[in-house]
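Need tokens for this chain, all 371 residues.
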Amino acid sequence: MARLFRIILVLTIISPFVSCSKEDDNDSGKVSKRTIILFMPYSGMQRYFAQNISDWKTAIGEGILHDERVVACISSSVSKASMIELRYIKGKGVADTLSVYEDLNFTSQAGIEKILHDVSVVAPAESYAIIIGGHGSGWLPAGTSVKKSLGSQTADSQIGIETVSGALENSGLKFDYILFDDCYMSNIESVYEFKDVVDYIIGCPTEIMIYGFPYLNCAQCLVGDVDYEGLCDKFIDFYSDYDTPCATIGVTKCGELDSLASIFREINVSGGFDLQKLDEVQKMDGYDPTLFWDLGDYVGLLCTDEHLREIFRRQLERAVPFNGHTKSFYCERSGYEDIATFCGVSISAPTETTVQMGLLDTKWWRECVAR
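Here are the structure tokens for all 371 residues:
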């Protein structure tokens, strides 16, 4: 089964992992180098989130933290949640409750901003990172009906990516990275929305198994000097031996996206893309019609200008410097799908289906195609 998430930032308490210990090795008044925020949604996946928290606690108990704090925001409903901190105490990882929320709309931008503010007060840091877990459907607007066989995507627990990026921007905090532990979030339309509020974006262009990121293996790469290449390697190694041996991952360097967008605009002005060849492009899902295609293959096969095609390829390598994949990916709807070419980020073509879903309303298409 896979995670299918439309960014849901609603938070709750997982009682088996919460303690009230105050004997920790952290100085509560100290400004840390980085605070890592784990957003875990109300989405019917609580037992998998519990495993994620358990893996983080085990990794923290092994002494992986340098000058970081790890705060988890976990929800039991749209409006009820708890904030806990994962700490290192005497050779093991434990969890302490920091605050409880009884009536706060976490699907609103104001609600998200409230959470970010509260984290910055209880765990102040020079910079922050966010890991968002749950179901995912990329750039598709909240409430879009896309039939998927796992999990609930009810309207009251969904928000759009523009709401999340707006909250991050308004928070005034510096974000080193966002890790989307969700399906389909490494797509150009989504990462472009966040390009001005975070340095790096980590995500999967296809579905991810419901287990999510194997934090027991990967957490060490997300602390200190972040090892993005090592993270990709460990992620793919883990899933290569998984029951369903399928995984894809891409790391986007947001500072390179403006240049990538500029070349994409130039391609459109000079002659655009031959969409008659669209069926030849590497697809990143099993839907009919396809919604997500490999961005590198999309431009490589469809761009009609050879010179611009090569310039785009080189810039794409700078914009997505790290990626990885198994020989195939898995889609809940279609099963195993072969991967012949891969860049780490997908794109949605302007077909009748995607236009109806609102593709042309995304920031990427407004700024890179419509102008």
